[in-house]
Design brief:
- The chain is about 60% helix and about 0% strand.
- By secondary structure, it is an all-alpha fold.
- The longest helix has 19 residues.
- It is globular, with a radius of gyration of 18 Å.
């Protein structure tokens, strides 16, 4: 069983299906106030499956809109480029990375990441962080797991078995088998994909934000808190669900408190159910 070193992991990235060009273009449009809505809508309309999922998600209970959205262009105008980017990214990832084997079920991973993304958006609404950038970072935070599985499926299956049999965290299991974890792998992949720096850093730091606090990236703290909150609410209903340790510094740095969040738990769960059903996971 060959296990690639972290520095060699990206050489296996071609084992992952490539993202559609429209998704890569949309990712480059994040925070671009000059992004042309008509051009983006025209590009999306070339993929009917993406349009169908976009409209289903946009009209789901997750967004609580009073009127129906009936076209990609209308979705951009009503929801904004960043929010539509998050929906389409989720659609593309779930379609392209739909790995289901005896050892690894990507759909369980996507349910979890949608839970974290939903929590991240709600948390961001109480801070100065863009909620849609937070949603995107939450959606991508575990992308390193896909890369590690694609590079060394037998070794990653061993990590999952170790996690289950020894009742340990996935980080400890990955480090035991690989010598590194999915947060490090995901951050490296995000850099290779040329994602915004704040998203790459948030992926790298989502389990250990205190190790990255000097970078001054509040999104890293937010994705960490969203990860803990998603596990606490058991969004995604993961097997062997473990609530990670929470960085009190991260919570304080965002100006949040658990008391202020408890009143939104039902809303978070409703939003999560809406987007999960709309995206078919």
């Amino acid at each position: 069983m060959t296990i690639p070193a972290l520095d060699d992991l990206l050489s296996h990235a071609d084992a992952l299906p490539s993202l559609p060009e429209i998704v890569r273009h949309l990712m480059r449009s994040l925070n671009d106030e000059l992004a042309d809505v008509d051009t983006l809508a025209h590009q999306i309309n070339a993929d009917p499956a993406i349009v169908a999922r976009l409209l289903a998600a946009a009209n789901s209970s997750a967004f609580g809109l009073s009127s129906r959205i009936e076209s990609a262009r209308q979705a951009f105008l009503v929801l904004g480029v960043n929010r539509v980017t998050g929906i389409i990214l989720a659609t593309a990832l779930i379609r392209r990375f739909d790995t289901q084997t005896q050892d690894f079920d990507a759909r369980l991973l996507w349910r979890h990441t949608l839970g974290v993304a939903t929590c991240a958006r709600v948390l961001a609404e109480q801070t100065d962080i863009d909620p849609e950038i937070a949603f995107t970072a939450g959606l991508l935070h575990d992308i390193g797991q896909l890369l590690m599985f694609a590079a060394a499926p037998e070794a990653y299956a061993q990590s999952l078995a170790l996690r289950k049999n020894e009742d340990i965290s996935i980080l400890l299991a990955e480090n035991t088998v690989f010598g590194y974890d999915h947060a490090a792998a995901g951050g490296m992949l995000a850099n290779a994909w040329k994602l915004p720096r704040e998203i790459s850093e948030a992926i790298s730091a989502h389990h250990n934000p205190d190790d990255y606090c000097s970078s001054g990236n509040p999104l890293s703290d937010l994705i960490h808190v969203a990860e803990v909150l998603s596990h606490a609410l058991d969004l995604g209903e993961q097997t062997n669900n473990r609530v990670p340790d929470l960085s009190e510094r991260a919570v304080a740095s965002l100006g949040l408190s658990w008391q202020s969040l408890t009143g939104r738990f039902a809303e978070i769960e409703a939003r999560y159910d809406g987007i999960r059903i709309a995206l078919g996971v």
